[in-house]
Amino acid sequence: MRKTNYLNNKDILLEIHKSKNSFCTYLDSAYNQFDIIVTDKNQITNNLIQTAKTNRSKRLGNVDLESIPKTDLIFRIMTFDHIPDQPGRKKNPKTVADRKIKLNFPPFQHWKFNENNELICIGKSHWTGDLEHGQFSMSHGIATDKLALMWMKLCERYATRGNVRGYTYNDEMRGQAILQLAQIGLQFDESKSQNPFAYYTAAVTNSFVRVINLEKRNQNIRDDILTMNDMNPSYTRQANDEWEVALKREKEFQENNTF
Length: 259
Prior knowledge:
By secondary structure, the chain is an alpha+beta fold. The chain has 7 helices and 7 strands. Helix 4 (145-158) runs antiparallel to helix 5, helix 4 crosses helix 6 (196-228) and helix 5 (170-184) packs across helix 6 (196-228).
């Protein structure tokens, strides 16, 4: 069995792509792979078509650009056109996304040119059934097992870092980070970045810090209650108190011996 290289952006992107495709419908399974991403059909110009051909050539092994017909190119258009509205989801909606149903990843459609040089829709995210008469759906897809394994391995490796591995609640931090990746793992937007590892690492870091801050607040509350009842607080509180006393003595000594 091939070992998972979870630090490889290329492999992570591939699994993200497979996972998102499980939530999509295409006229043909071959149309799931896109050559370029845009936010509007009006952006599809001759220059962009050449860029799409270059991207497709690299993906296929540097084939001759002239041998790639325009009708083979697949354009991913980031759009909410096929996503149902959800009035009242946000009190003061500022974007189109705020007015739509909350999704697990940014929605898109795939388009291509037909033989008549017309752009036609060949695929939709968050969709089941026929492209014209199907329906919106968010429950029929799933993240791949390999992507889930990458999330777990990333959290496990982060948990061994020197600045976090000594905490007694290390397992809780790791579990919270895995949960966070399961919730936002597919929200990575390929149109804005090709570095999902950095995106995931930032999410894991925030999860670990969140748990650490929560535990510190709880510990301070426990120490305050113990101190109020004339009981010894945690060793951390005692060490901090001793350090503050030592600093105070040093400051008083310097003030009394200033000439």
